[in-house]
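Here is a complete protein record:
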Amino acid sequence: MINCLLFIQDGNSGRTCLHHAVQTSNFSILGYLITDAEADIHAINFAGDTPLHIASGLDYVAVASLLIAAGADVTCQNYDFGEDISEGEAEGESSGEEGEKEEEETQEAVKQVAKDEEEELSGKTPMDLAKSERVREVILY
């Protein structure tokens, strides 16, 4: 029964108990979750962050080392693709046919940009989020 609770995500951020243990850097819970309970070290929250993303972003070298030793994927990308190209600043409402035509042209332009840049869009890896050279070294080796 306890093991099935390991995979439940919280409703606010989608973090699992392993994400929370990483964020608090609680080694006794981390050790239990990884070795005894076999928690999913590749679990993602609503932002696409794995526990390793969180450890890297918080500069937790020892936690990152533990996760990597347990098999965490250092190349996994989250959902942070930078600025959303489909959201622009509204300049104001236009009315009538002119407004509809401008809206259609804008939508087509956004679709074309998204199509052109589709291959370039990628999320951030734990290496991208690493704040210190020490964490980067752990990820690389």
Q: What stands out?
A: Residues 96-117 form the longest helix (22 residues). Residues 83-95, 116-120 have pLDDT under 50 and may be disordered. The chain is about 50% helix and 0% strand.
